[in-house]
Specification:
117 residues; mainly alpha; 2 domains; membrane
Length: 117
């Protein structure tokens, strides 16, 4: 019964994800425009080029706003991933990346906290 439920929900989710491929591609292109606008705005020194890159970034923002249904597609992809993990009896976890203890700044902060007690 559990496998049937996973198959049914997975099928529906896959159909929704496939229907949202267009908005997802539009959203990815919008994100690319925003990234390029911000990246080159910071790098350029000319005022005219700063205006151009701001305009390109704003076009990307407005295009991203028009592709809001892509969020449904992203949610469908996440649910599809969770269903895939459950089908294979694997644990689903979204853990944060653990800190590397060899980081000199982290170790310095720990030692400094010990000294100032």
């Amino acid at each position: 019964m559990k496998k049937l439920f996973l198959l049914l929900v997975g099928g529906i989710t896959a159909i929704v994800a496939l229907c949202m491929v267009g908005p997802l591609l539009g959203f990815a292109f919008s994100a690319l425009l925003v990234f390029l606008g911000m990246h080159y705005y910071v790098k350029t020194t000319s005022t005219m080029m700063k205006v151009v890159w701001v305009a390109i970034g704003l076009m990307g923002v407005f295009s991203a706003i028009s592709n809001v249904p892509a969020i449904i597609g992203l949610a469908a992809l996440v649910v599809l991933y969770i269903i895939y993990k459950k089908w294979n009896n694997e644990e689903v976890s979204f853990k944060q990346i653990k800190e590397d203890s060899s980081d000199p700044f982290t170790n310095f902060e720990k030692e400094w906290a010990k000294l100032t007690k």
